Amino acid sequence: MPTLNELYPNEVKIAEEIHFKIEKGLIYAYQRWEDEKEYEDFKDYQIYMQKVIPDYPIKKMTQRPFGFYITIGPIYVRYTIKTDKTHIWTNREVMQNLNYGKTKKGVVSNGI
Q: 59 near 73, Cβ under 8 Å?
């Protein structure tokens, strides 16, 4: 069975490029949220991250794990924060968007 990288090399490459682009901003947003979550609106963090990647709408932003989801054509990408006692890093999960190209009431979907 072919991998997503074999099936969709251009989209996977874009997902990797976005990962490098958002890495510092996502870590900054996570650290700020941890300090300010009692006082700030979480929606503001999605607005902040969306400004970093204006060409790819954030479908959903989550507090646990801290991160967000986007679609890039036929793939679905989740960027999250991972932590341990001494480090913070970003993680990228690439999955096939099973709704891509399916129709619902005559509309072609490229979303979730």
A: no
Task: Kindly report whether the global pTM for this prediction surpasses the value 0.70.
Answer: yes
CA-to-CA dists, residue 27 to 2, 71, 75, 79, 80, angstroms: 33, 21, 23, 11, 9
Confidence band of 107 (pLDDT split at 50, 70, 90): very low
Q: Which residue has the higher pLDDT, 105 or 38?
A: 38
E runs forming strands in the chain? 60-63, 66-72, 75-83, 88-96, 103-104, 107-108
Give whole-number Cα distances, 54 to 25, 48, 75, 86, in Å.
Answer: 14, 10, 18, 32
Q: Say which amino acid occupies 28.
A: Y
Helix (H, G, I), strand (E, B) or coil at 10: helix
pLDDT value at residue 1: 78
Q: Across residues 65-93, what is the average pLDDT?
A: 93
